[in-house]
User: Fold AB hydrolase-1 domain-containing protein from Pseudonocardia adelaidensis.
Amino acid sequence: MPLADGTADVYVHQNAYHQHFSADLSAEQVALDAATQRPFNTAALTEGSGEPAWRTTPSWFIYPELDLAIPAQAFRFMAERAGARATVEVPGASHALPASQPQAVADFILQAAAAD
Assistant:
């Protein structure tokens, strides 16, 4: 949806939501998620964010193997650039990783929290 400032609010089309965003969630969950999704603004793709925290703060990186929104090689690049102390690719997981694999995400957070 175009906005007056030249940016746009972007949604994932409901008919494509399951396949492209959350293939490993139930059809019932996806229908709810697709219908209630919040938009993101295109400015998020172009505006700077300031000094990245990963330059001064230790980081850990978990990402889904089958994300169709962000390529796995982009995740790998970001993890390497950040000097991630640990990197985990979750097999078979979609972009909706925290919803589809909550235990894997929670375990990884606990691992990171216990690291130092």
Q: What stands out?
A: The mean pLDDT is 93.
